[in-house]
Design brief:
single chain, about 325 residues, alpha/beta, Rossmann fold, about 45% helix, binds NADP nicotinamide-adenine-dinucleotide phosphate
Length: about 325
């Protein structure tokens, strides 16, 4: 019998006693992910680079939780994914304060970042992929200890259908700062930025697959969701310099209007990190996206089949080895 995944927030089990980390949770899809987990009584850590933005978001979430009579703690945990040394320290600090980690949502993402001097690698690749690679691999001992006790740890690496614009990872483009990196950008360079973003999202998905393959059958369920097209988030605001000022509010209004809500955008990853269907149906190393209705309302999560070229274990392994080496070099600086 074919299995059709279903996500019903009302039937999500209570998460009391579970510890969750959501990266990039101060806005957008991550904010709604954190809210839902907290509303089910998980202890949630909002891993973010700006304490000010995170604390403002936590205040907002606490008011919403109070309104539904839920008394859960949401904590700020400092994490700047652009700095690999900082990421390592952040993961170590987390392990010093918590003795378990049940749910890890690697949701933070940047689109359109400039290649400023602090980046060794292409900025979106360094932030979206390498930062998360360093964070997750440092946390692995804690994750494995948790799984040994509970048999159920969930990890998602939030990806995007933008990965479909690239077929492979060009390691030269990721590693070599282009000669025109500081030149003013224009709308003509938009495609270049979208390719960089797509490459980082392909890396998120391949990392999830390779992580799952290496972990094997230990009760750690690693998957990669595409949230859908979600309107009015901060994603891509870094590209504002290539968009004429009068177009910006119009573009934002159009995406809010035509895209999914933040809460609907969170549902595919929430399914993967909370649904009992995941262990029951051994959902591991998969790429999920939402089925949507007219006007982009979330209907259900969907196990999305990708072309064979994306299912190449040699590529996953190559990415892992390259990333390990890159992290080692950054830490040695
Ligand atoms: N929106 C969509 O239609 C869509 C579609 C497909 C996939 N996605 C993916 O879904 C995820 C969430 O997207 P969103 O639309 O909700 O984006 P968003 O509103 O821009 O939120 C992104 C989050 O990532 C954080 N972040 C960026 N750079 C960071 C860094 N160096 N260190 C730590 N945190 C950092 C941001 O923090 P700051 O507030 O500090 O910048 C923010 O909290 C992303 O991975 C994105 O690629 C989104």
């Amino acid at each position: 019998m074919t299995f059709t995944p279903k996500f019903d927030p009302k039937n999500t089990p209570d998460l009391t006693g579970k510890v969750a980390v959501v990266t990039g949770a101060n806005v957008g899809i991550g904010l709604e992910t954190a809210f839902f987990l907290a509303s089910k009584n998980a202890t949630v850590y909002m891993a973010a680079r700006s304490e000010q933005r995170a604390l403002a978001a936590i205040d907002q979430l606490q008011s919403r939780l109070k309104a539904i009579k839920v008394d859960t703690k949401i904590y700020y945990h400092h994490l700047d994914l652009g700095s690999i040394k900082g990421v390592r320290q952040s993961a170590e600090e987390f392990m010093a304060k918590e003795d378990k980690l049940d749910i890890l949502v690697c949701n933070a993402g940047a689109m359109g970042s400039m290649w400023t001097p602090e980046f060794t690698y292409e900025p979106m690749f360094q932030t979206n992929h390498l930062g998360h690679f360093a964070f997750v691999t440092t946390l692995l001992p804690l994750i494995e200890r948790t799984a040994a006790k509970t048999g159920d740890v969930r990890i998602v690496m939030t990806s995007s259908d933008a990965l479909l614009v690239v077929k492979e990872i060009d390691y030269d483009a990721v590693s070599n700062r282009p000669a025109n990196a500081d030149a003013p950008r224009s709308i003509m360079t938009f495609k270049t930025f979208f390719d960089c973003y797509g490459r980082s999202k392909l890396a998120n998905m391949w990392f999830a697959k390779e992580l799952d393959r290496r972990i094997g059958d230990k009760g750690i369920w690693v998957n990669s969701p595409h949230p859908g097209f979600v309107g009015g988030t901060d994603l891509g605001l870094e590209l504002n310099d290539v968009v004429p000022a009068f177009v910006r509010p119009i573009a934002r209004a159009i995406t809010r209007w035509t895209g999914m809500s933040w809460a609907d955008g969170a549902k595919t990853q929430l399914y993967l990190v909370t649904s009992p269907e995941v262990p029951a149906h051994k959902i591991r190393g998969r790429y999920f996206s939402p089925r949507v209705s007219w006007f982009n309302y979330f209907k259900a999560p969907r196990d999305q089949k990708l072309a064979a070229s994306y299912e190449n274990e040699e590529e996953w392994k190559k990415l892992w080895d390259w990333s390990e080496e890159a992290v080692k070099k950054e830490l040695a600086k």
